[in-house]
Amino acid sequence: MKFYQNSLSGVSQILFIMLFCVAELFGAIPTDSSESKLSKQIRIPSAKNPYFVVAGAGYGVGLNKDVYTSFLINTSGSILNRTLDYYSLGEGTYGSLGFGYFVNDNLSFRVGFQYQKSTIINWNITNSNGKNCGNGAISGTCISIIPAVYITIPGISEDIIPYLGVGALISVPTVKVSAVRVQHDSPLFPNEAFVIEKTDWNYPSELMFGTQFTLGTELVLNKKAVIAPEILFQWAAYIPNSKTLTGYWVNGVDEITTVSSKNITLTEHIASNNTNEAPKESYSYCSLILRLNLIITL
């Protein structure tokens, strides 16, 4: 965990320094010099029309994928872990709405609101004989506030304007996990599979912090509107402190009332014979996002 946090901090610092150097190189940081290199361009929005709104939609491909998760199967109080395929809850659809202000023609600030719905991840577990002995699904959503700084890079033309951005990701994710354990070769029906236990888990909405980096291009439509295709790199991980059992069935019969330990604390150090604790879990929300924005001057 500490390694992940230190790595994230180091990457953020390096990329921020690189972004600052680019800003200095192209004159995006305000100085006492004459008008900026883009001041003669017909740009909307710009320092002369500083306030704008931006709306966008896109799709993200999962990065930094996790290789496992844990779920509880309440049989004799035991805790069972399952190894899964690679997955990231950062994969899915994205929608965003934001407001911005241009300090000058090269430097702007935005506050964005982002909603993400993860692609449902399904898995199957087979035994040594190749028979299915378990399956399940992970799903999630995430609501984020993203304060960010953007730097315009002069160069291509008056109507094609590339830019870089870096923002802090302040999010509230939700995660749901469903799992099924299957028993094979019943004495009565040796060639059939029978569902023995099914569990549903909800994870609390806790704050998640991350970083979002942006590379985009403004394509000027007219004096009021700009479209902006973007590539975004999002780095974040949800590490919950607890989870709650919301459904438990045995042989198709609802047995949730028979479970005494519905609220499970997730910890790195599990006390012996404590059925209220389980190993820490981590859910990646890292992704590479392709997004199309519409920017309108107020």
Helices, strands, pairings?
Blueprint lengths: L1 H25 L24 E12 L3 E6 L8 E8 L4 E11 L4 E12 L2 E6 L5 E21 L7 E25 L8 E11 L4 E13 L4 E14 L3 E9 L2 E2 L8 E5 L9 E3 L3 E2 L2 E11 L1
Parallel strand pairs: 14-15
Antiparallel strand pairs: 1-4, 1-17, 2-3, 4-5, 5-7, 6-7, 7-8, 8-9, 8-10, 9-12, 10-11, 11-16, 11-17, 12-13, 12-14
Biggest β-sheet: count, sense, barrel? 8 strands, antiparallel, barrel
- Subunit organisation of the chains: single chain
**What global shape is seen?**
elongated
Beta percentage is: over 45%
* Low-confidence residue ranges: 1-8, 22-42, 69-83
Overall number of strands: 17
Mean pLDDT: 77
CATH class: Mainly Beta
Distance between the termini: 44 Å
**CATH fold-level assignment:** Porin
Number of domains: 1
Number of helices: 1
Describe what is shown at a glance.
With 298 residues, the protein is mainly beta. Helices cover 8% and strands 57% of the residues.
Overview of the molecule:
With 298 residues, the chain is mostly beta strands. The chain has a single domain, classed as Porin. The protein is 8% helix and 57% strand. The chain contains 1 helix and 17 strands. The chain has one helix at residues 2-26, and strands at 51-62, 66-71, 80-87, 92-102, 107-118, 121-126, 132-152, 160-184, 193-203, 208-220, 225-238, 242-250, 253-254, 263-267, 277-279, 283-284, 287-297. The strands form 2 sheets. It has an 8-stranded antiparallel β-barrel. Strand 6 (121-126) and strand 7 (132-152) form a beta hairpin. The two termini are 44 Å apart.
